[in-house]
Amino acid sequence: MTIRIAMWSGPRNISTAMMRSWENREDCSVVDEPFYAYYLQQTQSPHPMFEEVLSSQSRFYNEVANEMSEGKCDTPVQYQKHMTQHMLNECDLAWAKNLRHCVLIRDPAYVVNSYTNSRGDCTADDIGIRRQVELYDYFSQFSERPIPVIDSASILASPETALPHLCDSLDIPFSDKMLSWRKGKRESDGVWASHWYHSVEASTGFAKPKEASFTLNKSQQKVVDEVMPYYEYLKTKIS
């Protein structure tokens, strides 16, 4: 029986590097943002490669949900990379009650700065931090174990410590193969990889965090201020 892991992240985090890390295990396969087309179909948000994404995967929520919860999988572990903003408020989350969940967070100031550099303005809903809290609270009602919350900064600073701790929290043996991977593209990458994954494709592991210096404008700071309480709440759940 496959152990299915749902990692809930917002955009402009290290979610794709985490996917690389898990896919490098011999016992694990990965799924890249399976609800992306559904999200775009419902919101009509003008994302890069809009039509390509819609053509690349199912747009039907229930169909994707069934695949993620009960679909055929040939590996002992399946790692599902999810974006929290893809889970719209009307989504029925019952399909994921029996998955093992984890939450990946990042300081909102860095998220907003990176997101707006890539796509222009953003809203609180675009970066999904508030939705992360809602998902965390919902799934915590059903989880047999505390849902691990991990800050991307801790992974970048010390993956050899943070990743074994994450695996232990998920009751899955750690593999040191998670610490590095080969350069290049993957068949498992979403079609949007050609737009977003250049840095990850050039990587062979988690890069040490760099000192970043930037100044947010009023619009950016407003979004940060709006979501910061949710980020701080999730930080209190880090163990």
UniProtKB/TrEMBL annotation:
<dbReference type="GO" id="GO:0016787">
    <property type="term" value="F:hydrolase activity"/>
</dbReference>
<protein>
    <submittedName>
        <fullName>HAD family hydrolase</fullName>
    </submittedName>
</protein>
<dbReference type="InterPro" id="IPR050571">
    <property type="entry name" value="Class-IV_PLP-Dep_Aminotrnsfr"/>
</dbReference>
<dbReference type="GO" id="GO:0019752">
    <property type="term" value="P:carboxylic acid metabolic process"/>
</dbReference>
<dbReference type="Pfam" id="PF19798">
    <property type="entry name" value="Sulfotransfer_5"/>
</dbReference>
<dbReference type="InterPro" id="IPR027417">
    <property type="entry name" value="P-loop_NTPase"/>
</dbReference>
<comment type="similarity">
    <text>Belongs to the class-IV pyridoxal-phosphate-dependent aminotransferase family.</text>
</comment>
<keyword id="KW-0378">Hydrolase</keyword>
